[in-house]
Amino acid sequence: MRAIFPWLPVPLATVGLTVWFLGGNWPQVLAAAVIAAVSAATIGIAATRRLEQRADALAAAARGEMPSATLPVLADDPDDPARLARQVQATAKTAHETGRQLEMLRAVVDGMSEGLWITSPDGNVIEHNTALKEMLFSVTELVGRPSSQLINSRELEDAVLRACRENASSRLEVSIEGLLPRVLAVQVSPLGRELAGSAAVFQDVTELQRLEKVRKDFVANVSHELRTPITAIRGYAETLKSGALADATAAPKMVDIIYRQSERLSELVEDLLELSRIDAKQIQLTPRPVDVSQAAQRASETIRPKASAKAIGVEIAVPPGLSAQADERAIEQVLLNLLDNAVKYTQSGGKVRVTAVPKNGEIEIAVKDTGAGIEAKHLPRIFERFYRVDKGRSRDMGGTGLGLSIVKNLVGLMRGDVRVESRPGEGSTFFVELPAAHPEPK
Ligand code: ADP
């Protein structure tokens, strides 16, 4: 508004001079000049006011506070503020929409379990997601660093450059050394025709490969374990068939071996079936209060003939009334497997003792023997399937290498834990912890 006042002398002087030329006297000149100035000022103020209102409306529309549709459009004026406002609003809306989509994309990319990086055409990382940083255990900034500096792999470096320069995609596996060695499967792709650079997606396949190795080892072990008794059975049966049957001294021995090997085969198949039922979660455990002393007594009855044959004393020293929250059949099988091992790996004349104590809401059962003991280096592995300290000895004793693995799985299913303490020459003690049974409400 203030901009009008400096211009007021212009109409004032023009009208005054015109009246004076036309022969007007001073009062007439003055009156005409004042009227002209007042009119000009009024028109000017009105026009400025209107312009200011439109500018305010335009600013409000641009800020999105006022719909541009409410601004009138002058059809013949391409510079009309309302058109401008609509244009500004449309651009702002597109920018807002793009921003929202980018935000959504960022959330998806950061939520991925796979790692992701985007590189510039020269192979420097320009973007990455959270998973990649975690996968590389990196605490420093990744952006701006050459991809080859983040993962030391010539193959990956070549794949990134091929994607950037030749638009070629590659799939490869890279191994990362260090405290926690890992294997990553990587898919490297070019960004696209119009965008120079590459993108790589990383998947941690370490666990997958470990499980695949466990599966392969298991199949190989099973085949080997089955082959040994089958070979013996077939060999002795063939020898008998081709004449040894008539040998009154050798024949009964051979038949005896065939019988023992077939027993071993059936034990192996039983153990394998039990493990496969556990793995397939086909075992229905019914946890209920089980009297530990009675369960231990029943398991020891089964083992007693074997123990007596080796003159091994089996003592059950579990106080009566101790109840574990467990499945009756499972707890008995656990104790039977531990007692069987204790007798198997204890020399003639040795001792086996079962005790139990309540401990922090659990019942801790201990199966202790005076046997050969186990070297410390084997202790962390003896619960693995088919792991044996002495393969030959285990087989001679009729072991399958699966007993402790079954124990561990069954105890786990009963929400318990199993551990071992042993020293060579000092015997072994296996501890089983099971939840204590809650007293039955009366
Ligand atoms: P196995 O059928 O061979 O006994 P297990 O899974 O029951 O298989 O036991 C795994 C290995 O742990 C055995 O081969 C043996 O070397 C060792 N082991 C288990 N229990 C005892 C024990 N009480 N004393 C000494 N060694 C044992």
What does it look like?
- With 442 residues, this protein is α+β, with helices and mostly antiparallel strands.
- Helix content is 50%, strand content 17%.
- It has 12 helices and 12 strands.
- It has helices spanning 9-21, 26-63, 81-111, 130-135, 147-150, 154-166, 206-241, 250-279, 292-309, 328-344, 391-396, 403-413; strands spanning 115-119, 125-128, 170-176, 182-190, 198-204, 288-291, 313-317, 323-326, 351-359, 362-369, 417-422, 428-435.
- β3 (170-176) and β4 form a beta hairpin.
- The radius of gyration is 45 Å and the shape is elongated.
- The model has no long low-confidence stretch (mean pLDDT 88).
- Adenosine-5'-diphosphate binds at residues 341-342, 345, 369, 371-372, 374, 382, 387-390, 394, 399-405, 428.
Précis, in short:
With 442 residues, the chain is of the alpha+beta class. It contains twelve helices and twelve strands.
Layout of secondary structure:
Elements: H1 9-21, H2 26-63, H3 81-111, E1 115-119, E2 125-128, H4 130-135, H5 147-150, H6 154-166, E3 170-176, E4 182-190, E5 198-204, H7 206-241, H8 250-279, E6 288-291, H9 292-309, E7 313-317, E8 323-326, H10 328-344, E9 351-359, E10 362-369, H11 391-396, H12 403-413, E11 417-422, E12 428-435
Parallel strand pairs: 7-9
Antiparallel strand pairs: 1-2, 1-5, 3-4, 4-5, 6-8, 9-10, 10-12, 11-12
Helix pairs in contact: 1-2, 2-3, 7-8, 8-12, 9-10, 10-12
Bound molecules: adenosine-5'-diphosphate.
Adenosine-5'-diphosphate is lined by residues 341-342, 345, 369, 371-372, 374, 382, 387-390, 394, 399-405, 428.
